[in-house]
Automatic annotation (TrEMBL):
Alphabetized InterPro entries for the sequence: E_motif, PPR_At4g14850-like_plant, PPR_rpt, TPR-like_helical_dom_sf
Short name of one Pfam family: PPR_2
Bias-annotated ranges (Polar residues): 1-10
Protein name, as recorded: Pentatricopeptide repeat-containing protein
Keywords associated with the record: Repeat
NCBIfam families: PPR
Highest taxon listed in the record's lineage: Eukaryota
Start-end of each PPR repeat: 92-126, 162-192, 193-227, 294-328, 467-497, 498-532
Record region (Disordered): 1-23
Single GO biological process annotation from the record: RNA modification
GO MF term set: RNA binding
PANTHER family from the UniProt entry: PENTATRICOPEPTIDE REPEAT-CONTAINING PROTEIN
Organism: Papaver atlanticum
Amino acid sequence: MSTTFAQSFSRSKDPQKVSQNREINKADKSRNLLSIKQRLSKSTSINSSRVKIKKTVIKRYDTSLTRSLCSYVDSGLMNEALSLFESMQNLDTFHWNVMIKGYTNIGLYKEAIDFYLLMQYQGVKPDNFTYPFVIKSCVGLLSLIEGLKIHARLIKTGLDSDVFICNSLIVMYGKVGCIELAEEVFVKMTNRDLVSWNSMITGYVLAGDEWKLFWCFRKMQAFGLKPDRFGIISALAGCSLANYERLGKETHCYVIRGGHESNLMVQTSLIDMYCKGGNLDYAVELFKKVPCLNTVVHNAMIGGYARNGCPLEAFGCLVEMQQSGNANPDAITMVNLLPACAQLRDLFLGKSIHGFAIRNGFLPHLVLETALVDMYGKCGEPKLAERVFYLMKKRCLISCNAMLAAYVQNEWKRKAINLFLDIHEEGSIKLDAMTISSVLPAYAELASLRVGIQIHSCIIKLGFNVNTFVSNSLVDMYAKHGNLREARKIFDRLQSKDIVSWNTIIMAYGIHGCGKIAIDLFSEMQEKSIKPNSSTFVSVLSSCSISGLIDQGWEHFSSMKTDYGIDPGIEHYGCMVDLLGRSGNLDLARNFINEMPLVPTARIWGSLLAASRNNGDIVLAEEVAEQIFSLEHDNTGSYILLSNMYAEAGRWEDVERIRCLMNIKGLEQTIGTSMIELNTKTFRFINGDRSHSESYMIYNVLGIILGQIGETMNSPSFLRFRPRELIRKRSELPLTHSVRLALCFEAGKFVVSTVLKRNSETPGSEHLTNILVRLPIKSNMEDSIYWHTAPVEITVK
DNA sequence: AAATTATGAA
């Protein structure tokens, strides 16, 4: 299949077409623009012609010159038209209108408005024919301010009752996003024609207000007007907005009854509607019946295949389009194909499309570039996404959001946060809820709760705290930072909880070892008749696994399929292996893996490897590691784990062998660190760390807390290192785990500062003990090899 | 002498 794509890409590489496209893109526009500005500044020549108008009022109209002017304008030859215009005498409103129309039609909106201003300056009065063009130019510039000025002028001159002008105004306000103003114009009109209604309906499509759209659609019929193809096309767009299947079919009936079935644009809209409503079969049926397929219909179908999870069919449609010879792919075709590449995770295909777009002169193109950023992000290539992003000439909110998502999906958290801050500080692009919920996972993973709280207040200021997506990310962020209470508070206050909200809060309790609360929340969710999805069960099963709720884990695992019809995925099997491994039942875990219907991944085996280490089963560990290395030869963690197990067993030759293997493969041991933030400073600890200047205090605190939970530390062992003591050193390692050291540092500092505030003297070691022993330490520390991934809550009465 | 509304897009 991929050779067909490659062939079809290279076949249409036509140098002539490429140069044509490029020319349209830039050359013409800039040339025109320059000459007009130069000529407009020489207003003396036009001035003199005005003088001549006054002198020769009686002189007969030169119709042949006027006719030439019109034909230049109609063929888009504005330079020639301008020369003729300047040389002409007897210029009246009609000539000016022709010029304004010409500039509007070729997209030189600024020049059209300049001409409109100039004609007034020259004393020529604009009439009802002038304004539709001028208003269209405002739409082209998306300039509400110019539009409002013109509207004011219309009210002053009394032209605001002209139906054509009012219709233009409705279109303008609809397109610049001021639907209320469009409504105002519409309501004030005394005679509304079909175009007025159609324009209003189109405005509602753009505003995304399908309710008012259909209200309008019905109201116009009550006034005795029959919807034509314009209104029907908008209504079809409204159906995909609303996603009402019945409404779509109802509107399809209008098409048939009105006899619009043969109209290509109507056919396209119908296909698009059925695609967006997920009714792909209907769309394909209609697509097959279209007699002359153009680029747009193909694009609608390609987009439909892509959005309905049929990426290969999307490419099939591209090949059909190229083989038909009637239609050529354009920039939008590329935009529609890129999500298909992302779904296939096929980087080669994505790059082919990128190359095709470059060769055909489609770039620069804001939407296409954004789609490229999105595709590279989803194909796991944040570097390429970044490259496209920073080469873009223009960027908008959506392109920034796409880049942020690409960073976050690929774990480039720092970059995501920096980009977010850049956008925020630069200020020209206004953030939305999507921006925030894209970047929050990056804040959740990085160790600074302080900055997370800053973002939270920023969210409240911007009013995004009511948004469900944002709140879900916030719940996750607080949970990952160990502040379960705040996470719960946000969850409880959230007005409209969706399935993600529930999944997140269940997982939050799960990762903190509060399996019971997690399961209670799961029941509560079911009582509220919210249907769990596949991710819900990942949350529930991990909660059971972490808290050692073996029976409940099995219950939920089997009820997934029987009660909810959800087939367990690889991640669910992973949770179960974890559960069995934690319970120490290695044989069961192993049989479970062998009997599961899916091919085990490295992560599944990794779960069993961890379990075999905790149970000291070195034979199983070796076997499992073999499986992992066959899947991922560079899995550093597994090498280290195996090496540690050999060390614990005193098998030094094997330790050495593993180290050599790692050297050969160029793998380095990564050192895990734990960070904690105190008074705006970040402190980093490694396991058994003694490098901190306050290590004495930290180990003091550690000793005290260990005493409270019944663990003891043979203090000298970490001071010296002798191979024979390695066994003990290894088994003691969790005692001085980096997470514990970080927490003890925080606890100690807290006590010191509290005591200092009270007594204004430095507390001694005994002092510290006295206070720490009395501290209520809230957490079930014994449950885990570390106490917790989250800070321990310490309160002093 | 002349005008206004439509299809596919992240």
